[in-house]
Design a protein that fits this description.
With 187 residues, this protein is an all-beta fold. Helices cover 0% and strands 60% of the residues.
Length: 187
C-alpha cells in the first residue's frame, strides 16, 4: 500500500502488485525503494495480472516516511514509465486535547509531469480536519486538482490518493481546449 499503488481493498479481492521492494527503517524514519512490474485487481479491471512492462519499463518508486504516535508524514516519487513522473507528499497529525477528545489534521500535495507526451500533467492539493470524541468522529476534507489545458490527471494504480476519494468512484480527469470543459471518466 502506497499512495499511488494501493490495494484499495473495498472488495473481496484487493489490488495486488508484483514488485521488488526494499525498506530500511531507522528510529521513526523509513526509506523505501521499489520496482513494480505487474498489477491485478478491481482497479486494473482484471483478476489476472496486467503487465506494466508491456508499453514501457514498469514503475520505479522511492520514498521517505516519518511516523510517531502524533504524526505521520511522507514524500513519495513514482517514475511511471510512459505515463508520468509523480511527486507526492502528505502529513497527518493528531493532538489529544483531553482524555477521549482528539483533533486530527492533514495536508497533501502532488505534482505530476508527463513523460513522452503521455498527456498526464496536473497538481493535487488537499486538507482534512477531524475531531473525535468518545468513539464519534466528525471530519471534513477538501481536495483541489489542477489539470493543465488539454492534459489529464493520473489517479494511480488502485484506489486514489486524495483525502476525498470515494469508495466506488475514482476518475481520470482531463480538460479539453475549451476553457471550462473538464470531464471525468470512471476508471
Amino acid at each position: 500500500d502506497t499512495p499511488y499503488a494501493d490495494s484499495d481493498d473495498i472488495r473481496m479481492t484487493p489490488n495486488t502488485f508484483e514488485s521488488v521492494m526494499a525498506t530500511y527503517a531507522y528510529n521513526d524514519f523509513s526509506f523505501i525503494g521499489a520496482y513494480l512490474t505487474r498489477w491485478q485487481g478491481p482497479d486494473a479491471e482484471a483478476y489476472e495480472f496486467v503487465d506494466l512492462l508491456e508499453e514501457g519499463d514498469g514503475i520505479a518508486l522511492l520514498a521517505g516516511t516519518y511516523a510517531t504516535d502524533a504524526i505521520e508524514a511522507g514524500v513519495w516519487y513514482y517514475g511511471a514509465d510512459q505515463t508520468a513522473n509523480v511527486i507526492y507528499a502528505d502529513a497527518v497529525g493528531t493532538y489529544s486535547i483531553s482524555d477521549g477528545i482528539e483533533l486530527t489534521g492533514g495536508l497533501q500535495a502532488a505534482k505530476q509531469s508527463e513523460i513522452n507526451n503521455s498527456g498526464f500533467d496536473s497538481s493535487l492539493y488537499g486538507a482534512k480536519a477531524e475531531i473525535a470524541f468518545s468513539g464519534l468522529t466528525l471530519g471534513g476534507a477538501y481536495v483541489s486538482i489542477d489539470v493543465d489545458e488539454g492534459k489529464q490527471y493520473f489517479a494511480g494504480f488502485g484506489g486514489g490518493v486524495g483525502f476525498t476519494n470515494m469508495q466506488e468512484y475514482t476518475c481520470l480527469l482531463y480538460t479539453s481546449d475549451a476553457a471550462d470543459d473538464m470531464q471525468c471518466v470512471d476508471l
